[in-house]
Description:
Blueprint: E1 23-25, H1 31-44, E2 54-57, H2 65-77, E3 84-86, E4 100-101, E5 123-126, E6 135-138, E7 142-145, E8 154-157, E9 161-167, E10 170-173, E11 183-188, E12 192-195, E13 198-201, E14 214-219, E15 222-227
Parallel strand pairs: 1-2, 2-3, 3-4, 5-7, 6-8, 7-9, 8-10, 9-11, 10-12
Antiparallel strand pairs: 11-14, 12-13, 14-15
Amino acid sequence: MAVTKPLTDTAPLAFRGRAFKALALAPRGPLPEWLAGLDAALARSPTLLDGRALILDVAECKPDGEALAALMADLAGRGIRVLGIEGAEPGLAAESLPPFLLAGRPVPNLDVVPVPEKPSPKSLTIEGSIRSGRSVVHHEGDVTVMGSVSSGAEVLAGGSIHVYGALRGRAIAGAARNPRARIYCRKFEPELLGIDRLVRTAEDLNPTLRGKPAQIWLDGGALRIAGLD
């Protein structure tokens, strides 16, 4: 006769909290124009959103249920997977949508993978170029790139960033809460720029400087860009 063992020694369920950084997509109306800008950004940099944890922040565009479902379908059609939705009315939650999120807060930098290295001096010099898909992180000071920063590549520095070639990827300076940091490049063609906690994508930048030497800095809480003589 079989004997059933009581479940008194079953291990209890364990729930542990986790915190992850995510990139927030924040559509602005009208949505067709915002989607057109997104398409243009992806055309310039097909790897822009690759490997990113993405949150859809709809606090500004305030879509109704039908518009939110249509927006999710538009993003899915572009191969963009959204992990959660922020800023939507609670009554719009549905099984077909990602979970609604609360209490999200901005962070000073994007989600990058640091390059393992020994403790470094206050400045870091990269001999040559930074290839697409590579992230260089240096929280201690300036980063100087003797070559170019390719599309899909990323540089994050606690201080300023100096690029002696073309800046075609992403550059974030002042990540150590340094609003005086600057970005300099010989050829201005970035996908994304950031200083301290302020970030701008290519479509928000001055197109007249494209392909020219430029410097970027913060002035009164705004991102300023000017040519270099």
